[in-house]
């Protein structure tokens, strides 16, 4: 068993950036093991993606012609399994994304491959792979091993690895897709709802509220506070799910990324992986939370352990 | 018809906790148990279907793989209106990973023969996001992950699901049934149990089974049926914010000056 296999994802005709991060991890794994790195891309016109995959360290790019560019879990599973059977890789790397959630576990469970998810670290112990992931709401790290498994499938946490540099000398090839009995049909994509005057991605100063605000009636005072300090009002998932603020305010994996933010004030947000995915890159994060152990304090530059209502009221006096 | 809802008793940690002597987990004394947040939504979606189609006579069965303590979470589901509760356990399951758990649930699903299986997208403790979809794979059923909207008429050969993608996008997909769906937070608004429901649930019986009784071979139970093993657990070196101490007024004053400084006003 030798080789590293990566299946990339694409959406709207573009390779998803998170798949390039996975390639970065795969290049590191190649350096650690000396194994050959093969990248596979499937779709109705897979050739369109090969240029974006010619990156330093990639040995081989395989195109797999399938019925549609839209994600179908049965197709991705069948193609992955056929590739694993054909190439016998020791390691299969996938991004820990919504689409991969739909097929990686069935692939591994049926094929009895070693399997873990949401890893942010990969290492080598002799000729075995080890993965590192979080446990207990990020309070601990877990080092995962795969005794007796010749092939190991690992999904990688977005934002944990850097894409490789351009260049390289990958060989192009194609791989015949196995027959697939699709049991689901893609009907339509829905683009993110228009944000109106809320522009999380463009804002340079965001004040976000989370579960700590407690009740819907408290939203208004934080709206006023955000206005007073000149910030765009953001929120974490539970606030949008409850309908207390429109989804356009939501920061995080399923919401918006605070792409241009310079200052981010997190009030009553404990800091889930999904929320932090949308804001942990911000240079100046200030977190206010009653729980001194909240995860948000591990990525914030400044922290205040305190009551967000008291701090909010006091803050108003300065603006 | 029947809907099987698979749930998990999750553990969070006390503020100060210690690792087990073998270093592979946290000492159980420091666990604080609760029902996985996602499972409230999975149960609610089943209840919504049941109550929306009274004529269909939908039976909602909740099941979990866990020790005695997990009964508490099953009772929460009974209190909200689930018809039956099943708990499967044997000490061999102690070392099971998500796929090891899914093998047991698959054996249960073959016995119960539900029309739909709902699971949470992931559990709030370890967030593997794997058990529900592994279950679908082992059953070889159609499946969809991260479902944020469901349109299904009882008895229909397919369900229309709205999958939540990254960045606020969605994909609508038609899935053949029987199917396994993992449900996302926000798909509905979970109800609270009534006092009467809680009282009644306390007296209800919970069916208990062992993996062997479900026909799971010993060679596929627990660690033997798992695809991974925790080698060690450790507390990571984490960054720590510079803490602003003082009275709320002092803290807010410092926060205000930081804001002004960052914004180039001071």
UniProtKB/TrEMBL annotation, chain B:
Q: Which GO terms describe its molecular function?
A: electron transfer activity
The segment(s) forming the Electron transfer flavoprotein alpha/beta-subunit N-terminal domain are: 23-218
**Do the record's keywords include Electron transport?**
yes
Query: Which Pfam families does this entry report, sorted A to Z?
Result: ETF
Q: Which InterPro entries match?
A: ETF_a/b_N (IPR014730), ETF_b (IPR012255), ETF_beta_N (IPR033948), Rossmann-like_a/b/a_fold (IPR014729)
Record key words, sorted: Electron transport, Transport
Q: Does the keyword Electron transport apply?
A: yes
Spell out the family assignment given in the record's similarity comment. Belongs to the ETF beta-subunit/FixA family.
PANTHER family, sorted: ELECTRON TRANSFER FLAVOPROTEIN BETA-SUBUNIT, ELECTRON TRANSFER FLAVOPROTEIN SUBUNIT BETA
Q: What's the protein called, per UniProt?
A: Electron transfer flavoprotein subunit beta
Origin species: Caballeronia glathei
